[in-house]
Specification:
By secondary structure, the protein is an alpha+beta fold. The protein has one domain: Beta-Lactamase, CATH 3.30.450. 49% of the residues lie in helices and 18% in strands. The strands form two sheets. Strands 1, 2, 3, 6 and 7 form a five-stranded antiparallel β-sheet that branches. Strands 4-5 form a two-stranded antiparallel ribbon. The chain is elongated and about 90 Å long. The C terminus is likely disordered.
Length: 186
Amino acid sequence: MTQRIRLTLISVCLVALLTGSISIYYLKTEIEKQFQFGLQRADLMKSLAADSVARSLDLHPSIPIPQALLSDSDLADRLRTIMAVSRSLLEITICDNQNRVLLSTDTSRHPVDPFPADYPDYGRLASQSYLYEKIRVLRDERTPKYYQFRAVDHRIHSDRAGLLQLRFPAAEQCDQDAGHLDSRPV
């Protein structure tokens, strides 16, 4: 093998290595960006839902929280409107500090039922997991895996019932039709 062929092969390998490294960097950056966007959107929906819950609790300050939430007939409709506007939330569930459902937009969840503990945390996935975990979630083509965005908001903290939690079950999906990754709370 002549020196010219050897130098050509080395330069081709270096270009391929450099191109691959840059592509991996941009892929990692785009995946991180999409997950962070999904987390920010979930946080925005949490703020809207927390405002609605706080408003309902302020209407009835003298009665216990579960009854205050149930007595506000517009609360469930406001939460459903938030879900419709988001176009990606599956449900909004309000739980007490013992993880019991107080109110949910999902009709299969009833007050006092325990909220399922098998939803992994979306915030941890989006902020603290490694790239290979995110890619594994995006590539999993079995049944959808749902995540929850657990939000404890200071506006709905109450001495009457400890701390209320808003829970947003979410799903990670890969939007193959659009040709891009779509990390969204569902």
